Amino acid sequence: MTSQHTNCLVHLQHLWRDRELVDVELVLDDDEHDTIPAHRVVLAASSGFFYALLCGSGRHMAQGLGVSPPAVDAAPLHAGPILRLPLHEVQRDALELVMQAMYTGQLVVW
Question: What is the DSSP letter of 90?
Fold first, then answer.
């Protein structure tokens, strides 16, 4: 990996950690307060499932897998709308590990 790629990955990690420029919230089990913020581009680039869901070709497939249609909420003017993506029967711990892998390129297995 080039230093430019490494630098980009480090900046993405910081944006995620600091919740800057997030444009999607993964909502766990219909609990509006149990969310994990993310960036659509990172989700789509890191996961075929999220790519299909977010880019439109997999919305019907996703509904069959326990994912509700995305809903858009208002957000601060500088950030644009936040897409709320409900996920059903997904454990927070597991999703946080997956998200960490998406943003760091490393998967922690215990």
Answer: -
